## 1
Amino acid sequence: MSVAQILLLFTVGAAAGGLGALAGIGGGILVVPMLTLYFGLPIHQAIGISLLAVIATSSATSSVQVERHVVDIRLGIILELMTTSGSAAAAVLAGYLHKQSLATMFILFLLFSAFNLVKRAWGARNQALETEIPPYTIKNWPGGLAASLCAGAFSGLLGVGGGVIKVPAMYLIMGVPLRVATATSNFTIGVTAAASAYIYYGRGDIVIAIAAPLVAGVFSGSILGAKLAPKIRTTYVLWLFIVVAFWMAGQMLYKLLTGGLAG
Amino acid sequence: MSTQPQLGIREKSDTERWVAWSLTFGSYGSFTLLVLAGVVGAAGFPQWTLRLSTYGVVLMLATPTLRLVATFLHFAADKRWKLAMVCVVLLGIITLATITGIHLH
């Protein structure tokens, strides 16, 4: 691999990590389409590498959020029981799925995430930033645990963090304040992704030469994004993220229909 | 099972420090190895590049497990056995996933 290719992978990773951290949803969801569309990687390998990117994003941002006391560690590790089980089982299943099936599921998930972000960006237009965390009591554990199992399964199957399911579940179903829900979700996605990443790694789906510069880029982008996030108006970043997500979903769909996705 | 007041209280103890330390150590350690791999590669030592890249990737992969071990040790030291048991079950799931991965190789 040439130095130019290494630098390109690092830059792509930094962009995905930075944009993901600024938008508050992690960069994993952009890594899979980037690797399949622009680097010609088979989707199984792109998912394996994306899981590593999810771990990098989670580790980089959680270490800061934990020290800021916004992560509910006890809630997080209990939900992880479900997310890791779902993630590991789905990772095994992914090995038996055809690339077209995985690509179709990924496109649907990408569109679902983009529509969710549209709702969030539209709702956040005039919303004041939540500076203090109100006291809360966790309710509806069965609902929250079921949603976590689902989120874990999506993570293991598609190489995403699953925050797009976990955050609304914690916020709307379990009554956790949004800021705590977001930070706790980010905290749990690392262990969730690790459970399935070990399986992808064992299966040979994590190509070190591509993963190494990309993960280094995602890590540095996430750190920079997390530091910049409180200083800039993230609504614009959300809209940029939405445009990129729709663009990539469209591109993936086009390649899927024309048989252009790498096998 | 409608309310669990104790579980709704966020940690404000040493646990946070242990967890943050394990995450910082793992992720920054891995990042350092990956950057070093790039530097060594640019200097013309390809065999070291692959070795350092592999160590970096494996350390990143192991960082969440390291965080679980740190959390378990802290909960066990604090005699909070239920939460320590949750960590043990999680480590069991991760171990099972690793063994499955090895068998799939």
## 2
Amino acid sequence: MQALTVAGKLDSLAALREYVREATAEAGLEAKPTYHLVLAVDEVATNIITHGYEEADLSGDVIIQARIEETSLTISLEDSGVPFDPRERPDPSNLDDPLETRDIGGLGIYLTLHNVDRFDYVWKDGKNHNIFVMNRPNSA
Amino acid sequence: MSFQAELRTEPNAAVIVLSGELDANAAPEFRNKIETAASQDISKLVLDIKELSYMASAGLRTLVFARQKMGADVEIIVVGAQEAVRETIEMTGFHHSVDMVDDYQG
């Protein structure tokens, strides 16, 4: 699919989710894996925009691109914000603790990494590349 | 579908009806409604999410905010979560801290 470039602002999130839904429709993913992929991309994009751009006083774009292959759908996000590899964030250890006492960091990344078939990250040419892969049905 | 949050007050309870997609961009609006509800004398906060089709972790963080803002005496009831939203709530253990019900009669 043709790439889409959006401003690194929170009000761009809806457009990114819409792009992912178009890609999952084209790739024939069912409702549940679609929801999971949309959530994963949305969470990482939220981190990019919030931590990679806004809190660092930076501005820039987020570029999203879908690639549909015989057995998989790959979504990549590219940004020029602060380098951050989501895989380095440990899972929250307190998921059964009451909300009153919780440190609630890391939930978005937890949902991302547990909801996609594969996740990769590379820092290349001064940019973050977050890569999400879902298996296509009947391709196993 | 864009996000909407509507607050109404019943005797002893505040009801917030959420619809659409709750992402990081929409969460501040939800948070505002919770602050308004918290300023009232209530014993229950009812979150009607039957029409909420999507919730990101920003929504979960707002639930934490609600729990902390309301104080221990106020019961938080989450009504009618769609399957995918329910899964997110359960995956992150939030169902231990709020009551999840299919229906609510005031």
